Amino acid sequence: MVAIGKIDHQINVKSPTVSLSIRVADSLTGTAVSADDESTASSPASDGSIGSAGVSQLRMVLDEDQTHNANRKGLSLAQTVTELALELNRQGYTKETATTTTTTTAATTP
User: Fold this and answer.
1) Does residue 73 share a domain with residue 58?
2) DSSP designation for 38
3) Rounded distance, CA 88 to CA 96, Å?
4) d(CA 46, CA 105)
5) Is the pTM of this model over 0.85?
């Protein structure tokens, strides 16, 4: 994944131990690339493919409320990610899971 943005936004962080001002990008745009060579597949794909690839365009926007909440609570990055994942789950988003289909073909003798 590659994302870029203009660093033209300022966030102020205040806690009992630190007070600072940080310049950040309030939005990022970019591209994510995915690929799978299917080398660990137990059998050839039914369509004869030997892999797959994909490209996604993305845009991310800073949520200042979430940023301030995490800073106010003194959360680590890992704790913040966990809280955001729980919030997305409460909103109905679910973790994507892979599904597989197994087909059995009987061998015949001529």
Assistant:
1) no
2) -
3) 13
4) 12
5) no
> The domain containing residue 22 runs over which residues?
1-39+54-62
Question: Domain check: are 6 and 58 in the same one?
Answer: yes
> What is the mean predicted confidence (pLDDT) over 37-61?
85
- Report the distance separating Cα 25 and Cα 8, nearest Å: 6
Backbone angles phi, psi at 89, to 5 degrees: -65, -40
- Mark whether 58 and 84 lie in a shared domain: no
Strands (E), 1-110: 2-4, 7-14, 19-25, 27-36, 52-61
Model confidence at 74, in pLDDT bands (50, 70, 90)? confident
- Which tens digits make up the pLDDT trace of 6-30? 999 999 988 778 889 999 999 999 9
- Share the mean pLDDT of the chain: 85
Which is nearest to 28 in space by CA: 6, 10, 56, 9? Answer: 6
- How many other CB atoms sit within 10 Å of the CB of residue 70? 19
- For 20, the token pair is 């600072």
